[in-house]
């Protein structure tokens, strides 16, 4: 845990492949066609109408939390966005809002213009993307 109270995932976990943020929805959708989750296998699935990028970000966060075993810890959005272009950062921020709205993640911001902490909800950890 770093000084701000967020889990310290280290640079390896934060920096894995985020190329999906640079791809237009039409191109990324091709990767997910035919790879839709089987709703009979998983109990909590309501992501079939999501954009391909939303599913990619959800999967990215799911893998990040599972890889680090930090299900109860929050991660810093600022650290996730470090080194990203403005386009990548805005896309990640938008998809974070989508996932928050759909109750797949929990976000917390102490004060305006401060870092945003992200925690996984059960739906994120139990779903297939």
Automatic annotation (TrEMBL):
- Tell me one GO molecular function of this protein: chromatin binding
Cite the Rad21/Rec8-like protein C-terminal eukaryotic domain residue spans from the record: 72-122
- SUPFAM superfamilies in alphabetical order: Winged helix' DNA-binding domain
Instruction: Provide GO CC annotations from the record.
Output: cohesin complex; nucleus
**Record carries keyword Nucleus:** yes
Name the InterPro entries on file. Rad21/Rec8-like (IPR039781), Rad21/Rec8_C_eu (IPR006909), ScpA-like_C (IPR023093), WH_DNA-bd_sf (IPR036390)
Q: Which UniProt keywords apply?
A: Cell cycle, Cell division, Chromosome partition, Mitosis, Nucleus
Q: Name one Pfam family in it.
A: Rad21_Rec8
Please verify whether the record's keywords include Cell wall biogenesis/degradation: no
Gene Ontology biological-process entries = chromosome segregation; replication-born double-strand break repair via sister chromatid exchange; sister chromatid cohesion
According to its UniProt record, where is this protein located? Nucleus
- Top-level lineage group: Eukaryota
Q: Which family does it belong to?
A: Belongs to the rad21 family.
Q: Which PANTHER family match?
A: FI11703P, SCC1 / RAD21 FAMILY MEMBER
Summary of subunit composition and partner proteins: Component of the cohesin complex.
Per its record, how is this protein called by name?
Rad21/Rec8-like protein C-terminal eukaryotic domain-containing protein
Q: Which organism is it from?
A: Opuntia streptacantha
Q: What is the lineage of its organism?
A: Eukaryota, Viridiplantae, Streptophyta, Embryophyta, Tracheophyta
